[in-house]
Design brief:
- This protein is of the alpha/beta class.
- The chain has 19 helices and 13 strands.
- Helices cover 53% and strands 10% of the residues.
- Helix 6 packs parallel to helix 9 (203-218) and helix 11 (278-294) crosses helix 15 (407-415).
- The longest helix has 31 residues, at 456-486.
Length: 518
């Protein structure tokens, strides 16, 4: 077979969700590593008074595209913004744009979806299922289409413990559900949602499962592959380590931990944290399109599913995530931290609620009280409320582990030439978690919070100041406890002297043992 860059040479690509996190990385990698690609059409809707072309122009000016600008200064000429709205009939495309796409597109990457886990069911169906149905219908009219790639999620079938690389039949007929939702009011939909989603934790995973089945049922003669990434995080290697541009998923939690706002979280230390770097997902996606497109004449038509996960190949646990995040932010702290970084993970709901009250809500209330007294607007309780909502969304995924079949991922890697395996690397066996977590944390500092590394000395000084404040507070508290409780009770004094005596004897024994050994 041709190499991956050779396969994409002269091809016209269509990307939905091109302005989203994964869509941006896909576009950048495609243009940089496949320089002979003919054109990349990106479906974009007008937003906040900004035209689609202006949104694309703003997007390519971000840090992500810096490397591509150096290597190919004229790359932006290949990007064509197509005005579209996936929630509208015919995707909101003009007749001319429909004809253009139908006559020229060779490869479709359908990345668009709502990533809000707690989206109301109607909205989640509209964006994740109905939009997919319209994109598939458009793809079936494309005269030169070679492959259709649908980006799903590894958690589409999270109600199972073992997940194969196959499309599972959904619990309901998606067509009947679509028809029913048209006449139901929002209140009724809200009431039946828990029954519909069953053992799945949210509408996101539920609607992504329906979308997979829809693609299988309605793709007709299309050559289709489905990519299922797990929890997508910052880049591992490309275009540079640690690139991330949003607070979604674990990124916001990491920042909250680094700022000292997050102190407790409900999670199992031993549960597998199935993080997967965004460049791993994109490399696998581009390789999957190459493989299915190159093999379209030489093998029977089949829908290939790829579980793009790390848990079964290179497992990393939430306890380890916590350790590396906290140790990184202690060595390289975020600016103006609220408290020194420290997080307790617990799987016990009651213990977690206790620590939320003690270490989240009470300090936030006191800090807001201080802000009000000094004439400033309170903000910490609002921050804590948003943080708790994000933690509730992640709780299900930080408390469970899954077994993923990744045979198709292994097959795909084995089909690639050594040159392609290097250029489009998605072999997570090579991923060193400690290094990756440090670059991830530094990526949130640099690209999300826009903090320069030159500010580290001041940040470390601030962290030391917080440590001294904590020691002073603990000392004052101990003296107060002594004065109020212990000094006034003979029994309390006896217990206190007994404990101190025991500690003194232990230290004396330890010193004597050390002297004898030397």
């Amino acid at each position: 077979m041709a190499t991956i860059p050779e396969y994409y040479a002269g091809k016209t690509v269509l990307i939905t969700g091109g302005t989203g996190f994964m869509g941006k990385v896909l576009l950048e990698k495609l243009l940089r590593s496949c320089p002979d690609v003919k054109a990349a059409y990106v479906l974009v809707r007008a937003k906040a008074g900004q035209a689609p072309g202006a949104r694309i122009a703003d997007m390519v000016n971000c840090k992500l595209f810096d490397r591509l600008k150096e290597e190919q200064p004229c790359f932006s000429k290949k990007i064509v913004a197509v005005s579209s709205d996936l929630t509208q009939p015919e995707l909101g495309l003009s007749k001319d744009d429909q004809e253009m796409l139908e006559g020229s597109v060779n490869i479709v990457f359908h990345c668009a979806a709502t990533v809000r886990f707690n989206e109301p069911l109607k909205e989640a169906m509209l964006l994740n299922v109905l939009a997919t149905q319209k994109v598939v219908a458009l793809a079936r009219r494309m005269k030169h289409l070679e492959v259709f790639i649908h980006v799903s999620t590894a958690y589409a079938n999270c109600d199972r413990t073992v997940i194969e690389e196959m499309v599972y039949p959904p619990p309901v007929d998606y067509k009947k559900l679509i028809d029913s939702l048209e006449w139901m009011d929002d209140k009724l939909v809200s009431l039946i949602t828990p029954k519909l989603i069953g053992d799945r934790p949210n509408t996101y995973t539920y609607t992504k499962a329906l979308a997979e089945y829809l693609v299988q049922q309605e793709s007709g003669s299309l050559n289709v592959a489905i990519i299922r990434p797990s929890i997508v995080g910052a880049s591992w290697q490309e275009p540079f380590p640690g690139w991330i541009d949003n607070f979604n998923g674990p990124s916001g939690i990491f920042i909250a931990a680094g700022k000292g706002i997050l102190r407790t979280m409900r999670a199992s230390n031993d549960a597998v944290a199935d993080l997967v770097p965004v460049d791993v997902v994109i490399n696998a996606t581009l390789a999957a399109a190459w493989f299915s497109g190159s093999q379209r004449f030489s093998r029977p038509k089949s829908l290939l599913v790829y579980n793009c996960t790390t848990g079964g190949i290179n497992p990393f646990h939430w306890g380890e995530v916590e350790y590396h995040v906290i140790s990184t932010f202690k060595r390289k702290p975020l600016e103006q931290a609220f408290r020194r970084p420290h997080v307790n993970l617990t799987s016990n709901h009651l213990i977690n609620q206790y620590w939320i009250a003690v270490s989240h809500k009470v300090p936030a209330f006191l800090y807001d009280l201080y802000l009000r007294m000094t004439g400033r607007a309170p903000r910490m309780m609002k921050t804590i409320t948003r943080l708790h909502k994000a933690m509730m969304v992640l709780e299900y995924f930080t408390s469970h582990s899954w077994t993923w079949n990744t045979d198709n991922m292994t097959m795909l890697l084995n089909q690639m030439s050594p040159q392609d395996r290097k250029m489009f690397n998605f072999d997570v066996r090579q991923l060193h978690w400690a290094e990756y977590m440090e670059s991830y944390c530094m990526g949130t500092k640099k690209y999300v919070l826009n903090e320069e590394l030159s500010g580290l000395p001041a940040a470390r000084k601030h962290l030391n100041k917080l440590r001294n404040i904590r020691y002073t507070f603990n000392t004052v508290l101990l003296v107060l406890v002594w004065r109020v409780f212990i000094a006034r009770s003979q029994m309390a004094r006896n217990i206190w002297y007994f404990v101190v005596s025991l500690c003194f004897k232990f230290l004396s024994y330890f010193r004597a043992s050390s002297t004898l050994r030397h």
